[in-house]
């Protein structure tokens, strides 16, 4: 039974994160605010005044120190808001932190154009003459990769000033999607009509009553269909802005601009799509099983989320969930489990759902402090999976911070989902091995298949949609409701198979995806998932070399490019094998489920 609280004050202290680890009181936050403002002013003085290794080292040292304080300051403000989004005082602190971010960015804006105006021989001379620059050397040379993509000082200053205008499509969509959108109505048990909420939709779309699913589906898509022209305008502008910036910065394409930072060749992205589509048969078979299991003459989109095994959900307290997690992750070794125990003991978590608290879950790593993990624990199996997922991110953050200097402690988004998904695979394996109830076993396999579908197949479909729409923009083709809808509907059919009968709403699916405003991001979920499947399989086989290399990977932060870090664990995403291997695992799951 879910533990509910009417206010945050009712939640036990042990189930609330300890923000005093960031600042013992708000006056300390204010002191840091003034310190960062002063540091920003001091940074500006270096503009035009870096002439040797010593002054370069002074600038970089001050910039890193500022970054350390600013990350703490911003994290505190954000976490306070997320405790209760209704508190205007907390929101005011976050607004001030955002304003300070603009000042900091402006103070640093001169540096990259300056650095890339240097000759490589000059930079080497600076590094050779100043011992302190050895710490920054790798990062400085890495910056030289961007030499052909950074504009003049004046041009960079203009682009910096245009930052807010260029982010307008994303911000506008955010306001439409989060603040202004009004969903249609659904019918309560007593016959009363009420406006649908996202939380209600997540539950209703999994309801065993098909009419409830259909009603929720129609109500959920209603505003997106109604606002399709406005949303097409924001998405079109976002894509065109991205394409324009790519051209201004002399990248061959918008895709290659997005991949450049992680040093990922576009063939990795293309291989992901191509290999998935070659092995799409198991996905189509699962769609057919779903139609058969539900006993439907016509399978619709609103039938794709309902669990195929009912009555198998388990109540599980937070204490029990934590204990289960530690047992399930035992293959990761004693060091890993001890780190997890510290998370609970030292209050890195904010566990309970309370009025006004931000929904969902996340991990926020703060260098020099520790991770902070937001949960909305519901004492059920889904919450156990969320806990295990976020702890994967949390341990990754903790180990990277402890074993890397500040400059390389933050890991790339490209590898972020590996740590969380390895944990989920280990959990599902543990639960299946220890579950005697056949219905619960079926439920767990179904759960993992649906997780696979959402994290892998759906994200690859989204990735292909992004690739196609950006290529259309690069060719000067129109981006509007019709072109978005035709592209999305064709991909949805290709990935999900012919067993689905299409409602009109399906083709407007692009209108509800906020990730499309962070271009070429979603493919990382799929590559991360495929990588995790390989690593977890080896761990379950007791492969000591994989365990050692994986723990080293978790401690590596961004000390190397993501593909190189993964290669050390045995995963080479420049080949089709990791994708093929994960799709083979999906095929085996579908086969096992069909036999059950």
General description of the model:
- This protein has a three-stranded mixed sheet, sandwiched between helices. A two-stranded antiparallel ribbon has the order 1-2.
- The chain has 596 residues and is mostly helical.
- The mean pLDDT is 94.
- The protein has 26 helices and five strands.
- A hairpin with a 5-residue loop joins β1 (185-187) and β2.
- α1 runs antiparallel to α2 and α16 (318-328) packs across α18.
- The two termini are 29 Å apart.
List keywords for this structure.
5 strands, 26 helices, three-stranded mixed β-sheet, two-stranded antiparallel sheet, about 600 residues, mainly alpha
Q: Helical stretch count?
A: 26
pLDDT averaged residue by residue? 94
Strand order of the largest sheet: 3-5-4
Distance, first to last CA: 29 Å
- What gross morphology would you assign? globular
Oligomeric state of the chains? single chain
Query: What's the number of extended β-strand segments?
Result: 5
Beta-strand fraction estimate: under 5%
Low-pLDDT parts are none
Q: Briefly, what is this?
A:
This protein is mostly helical and 596 residues long. It has helices at 26-44, 53-83, 88-108, 111-117, 120-129, 134-143, 153-161, 163-166, 168-180, 198-204, 210-226, 228-248, 254-260, 266-278, 281-294, 318-328, 334-345, 381-403, 406-409, 413-434, 438-474, 481-496, 523-540, 544-554, 562-567, 577-595; strands at residues 185-187, 193-195, 349-352, 362-365, 371-377. The radius of gyration is 25 Å and the shape is globular.
């Amino acid at each position: 039974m879910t533990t509910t609280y009417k206010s945050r004050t009712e939640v036990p202290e042990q189930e609330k994160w300890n923000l005093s680890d960031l600042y013992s009181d708000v006056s300390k936050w204010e002191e840091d605010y003034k310190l960062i403002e002063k540091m920003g002013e001091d940074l500006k003085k270096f503009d035009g005044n870096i002439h040797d290794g010593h002054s370069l080292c002074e600038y970089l040292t001050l910039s890193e120190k500022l970054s350390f304080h600013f990350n703490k300051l911003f994290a505190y403000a954000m976490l306070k808001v997320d405790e209760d989004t209704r508190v205007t005082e907390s929101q005011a602190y976050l607004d001030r932190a955002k304003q300070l971010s603009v000042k900091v960015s402006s103070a640093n804006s001169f540096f990259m154009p300056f650095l890339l105006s240097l000759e490589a021989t000059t930079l080497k001379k600076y590094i050779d003459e100043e011992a302190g620059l050895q710490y920054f050397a790798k990062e400085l040379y890495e910056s030289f990769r961007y030499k052909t993509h950074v504009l003049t000082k004046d041009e960079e200053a203009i682009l910096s000033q245009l930052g807010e205008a260029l982010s307008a499509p994303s911000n506008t969509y955010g306001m439409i999607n989060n603040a202004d959108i009004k969903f249609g109505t659904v019918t309560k048990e007593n016959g009363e009509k009420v406006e649908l909420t996202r939380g209600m939709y997540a539950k209703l779309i999994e309801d065993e009553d098909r009419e409830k699913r259909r009603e929720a589906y129609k109500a959920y898509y209603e505003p997106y269909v109604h606002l399709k022209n406005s949303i097409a305008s924001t998405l079109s502008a976002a894509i065109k802005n991205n394409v324009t910036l790519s051209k201004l910065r002399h990248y061959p394409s918008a895709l290659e601009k997005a991949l450049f930072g992680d040093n990922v060749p576009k063939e990795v992205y293309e291989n992901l799509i191509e290999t998935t589509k070659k092995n799409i048969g198991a996905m189509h078979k699962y769609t057919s099983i779903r139609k058969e299991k539900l006993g439907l003459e016509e399978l619709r989109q609103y039938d794709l989320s309902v669990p195929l095994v009912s009555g198998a959900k388990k109540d599980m307290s937070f204490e029990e969930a934590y204990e289960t997690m530690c047992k399930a992750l035992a293959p990761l070794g004693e060091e890993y489990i001890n780190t997890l125990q510290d998370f609970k003991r030292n209050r890195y978590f904010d566990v309970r759902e309370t009025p006004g608290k931000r929904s969902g879950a996340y991990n926020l790593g703060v260098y020099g402090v520790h991770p902070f993990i937001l949960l909305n624990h519901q004492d059920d199996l889904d919450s156990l999976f969320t806990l295990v997922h976020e702890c994967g991110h949390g341990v990754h953050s903790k180990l990277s911070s402890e074993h890397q200097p500040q400059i390389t402690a933050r890991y790339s988004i490209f590898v972020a989902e590996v740590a969380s998904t390895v944990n989920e695979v280990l959990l599902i394996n543990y639960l299946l091995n220890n579950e005697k109830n056949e219905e619960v076993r079926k439920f767990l396999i179904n759960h993992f298949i649906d997780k696979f579908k959402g994290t892998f197949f759906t994200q690859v479909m989204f990735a292909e949609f992004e690739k196609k729409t950006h290529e259309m923009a690069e060719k000067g083709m129109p981006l509007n409701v019709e072109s978005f809808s035709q592209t999305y509907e064709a991909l949805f059919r290709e990935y999900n198979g012919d067993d689905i009968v299409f409602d009109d709403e399906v083709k407007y699916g692009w209108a509800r995806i906020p990730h499309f405003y962070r271009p070429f991001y979603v493919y990382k979920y799929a590559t991360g998932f495929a990588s995790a499947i390989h690593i977890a399989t080896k761990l379950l086989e007791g492969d000591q070399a994989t365990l050692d290399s994986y723990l080293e990977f978790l401690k590596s932060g961004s000390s190397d490019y993501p593909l190189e870090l993964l290669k050390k664990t045995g995963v080479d995403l420049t080949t089709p094998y990791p994708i093929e291997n994960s799709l083979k695992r999906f095929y085996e799951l579908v086969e096992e489920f069909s036999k059950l």
